[in-house]
Amino acid sequence: MNAQLFALIFFLNVINFAISAVVSASSDVVDKELILTEKEKIAFEKFRAAIMPKLEIEMMKHDLYLLRYIRAKNLNVEKAKRDMLEMLEFIRVNNIATIMDEDFSDMTDDYPFDMDILDLKGRPVGYLSTDGAWNIRRLVLQGKQARLRHYLCKLIFGLMFKLVEINKTQPNVTKFSMIFNFDGFNAVQHGCPLCVSTYLTFLELYEKYLPACTEDILMINSPTPVYMLINIIRPVLSEHTSRALKIFGQNKRVWKPYLDARIDPDKLPDLLE
């Protein structure tokens, strides 16, 4: 074997090793989630067998979703079954299966939400900014709390539906992220008691129906009231949600590098440049 051929083979082996390392690293988190203790395996199999025939929405049929769900219920199969049946009723009553086809033209202009962003690993990212938008107080005073809650369902489940579609071609993509930008925060429009209940509703919907499905829940340009609220509710959040929830103040030099390391700056809204 001549020196040039040897060098070429060596180079190709190095490239192959590098590619294998990247693939291994990207799947490592998923693999760890799929490692079950004997107790988890028994609980998961019982739960899956009992609930699978009743599931219609594609996202709920994924083993990883069901595994996260039973773990969120501390492996209590009966509780998981009861809560899942309640969730199925919620999905039926609120038409969640077709919610992405609903007309929300009365909401989208004043309450914009971007779910077309992907991070550097291909995970979907939802983005919401209070800058000149999301006058929650006005909506509540108009008696549209139920409409707002339904709209929030579209945002939460919309990200999950998008994740399921991406997962078909990229199996290692199993989570989504959310960014809440509090730039332009107004204490009257965004900080009233009724407004706070809306933020809590958002977290409640996520924790109740999509446990452990987020990589990050980022809050940037957060004013003092947001810090105070998160500090109050964090102890009652699940361990995963608390870990995913990361709050940054108004110092762009702190939160911008964190975002840039995860999302191509060119893919982010102009407000984050």
Q: Notable features of this structure?
A:
single chain, 273 residues, alpha/beta, Phosphatidylinositol Transfer Protein Sec14p, 5-stranded mixed beta sheet, 12 helices, 56% helix, globular
Q: Which strands sit side by side, in order, in the main sheet?
A: 1-2-3-4-5
Give me the CATH superfamily of the largest domain. CRAL-TRIO lipid binding domain
Q: What is the CATH architecture descriptor of the largest domain?
A: 3-Layer(aba) Sandwich
Kindly state the mean pLDDT as a whole number? 86
Estimated radius of gyration: 21 Å
The total beta strand count reads 5
Structural class: alpha/beta
Percent strand: 5-15%
Low-pLDDT ranges:
3-28
Biggest pleated-sheet summary? 5 strands, mixed
Shape: globular
Q: What is the rounded distance between the termini? A: 54 Å
Q: Tell me the number of helical segments per DSSP (H or I, 4 or more residues long).
A: 12
What is the H-and-E element order?
A: HHHHHEEHHEHHEHHEH
Percent helix, as a range, is 55-70%
CATH top level of the largest domain? Alpha Beta
In the CATH hierarchy, the third-tier topology of the largest domain is known as Phosphatidylinositol Transfer Protein Sec14p
In the residues, how many domains can be counted? 2
